Amino acid sequence: MKFTKKIIPWLFLFGILLYIGCDKVNNPQYNIDDTSCNECGRCIQICPVDAIEFGPNSKAVIDQTKCNQCGRCITICPKDAIY
C-alpha cells in the first residue's frame, strides 16, 4: 500500500513531463512573429544552417526544410519574435 502511494505521484509527474516534452514532436517548427520582428538580422547571422533570411516584407523568414531546431535564433532574438 505504501509503495502505491509513493509511485502514483511519480507516474503522474512523469506523464506530465512526457506530455510537455512531446510538444516538440507535435510542432517541430520555429516561426517568426512579423509584428515583433525588428529586422535586426541577428537570427540570420547565428543560424548554423542558413535557414533564415529576409523575406519580401523585410522580416526574417525561416526555411523549414533547412531548420534543424537548434534554438540559437530563439535565444538571440532581442524581441522574442521567434517561437
Portion in strands: 5-15%
Q: How many beta-strand runs?
A: 2
Envelope shape? elongated
Query: What is the share of helical residues?
Result: 40-55%
> What order do the helices and strands follow?
HHHEEH
Structural class, by secondary structure, is: mainly alpha
Identify low-pLDDT runs.
none
Instruction: Compute the number of structural domains.
Output: 1
Quaternary structure: single chain
Alpha carbon gap, first and last residue: 45 Å
Helix count, DSSP H or I runs of 4 or more residues: 4
Question: What labels describe this entry?
Answer:
83 residues; mainly alpha; Alpha-Beta Plaits; 4 helices; 41% helix; 7% strand; elongated
Written account of the structure:
- The protein is mostly helical and 83 residues long.
- The protein has one domain (2-76): 2-Layer Sandwich (Alpha-Beta Plaits).
- Helices cover 41% and strands 7% of the residues.
- A two-stranded antiparallel sheet has the order 1-2.
- The longest helix is centred in the first third of the chain and has 20 residues, at 2-21.
- The termini are far apart.
- 14% of the residues are buried.
- The model has no long low-confidence stretch (mean pLDDT 85).
Task: Give a concise summary.
With 83 residues, the chain is mainly α.
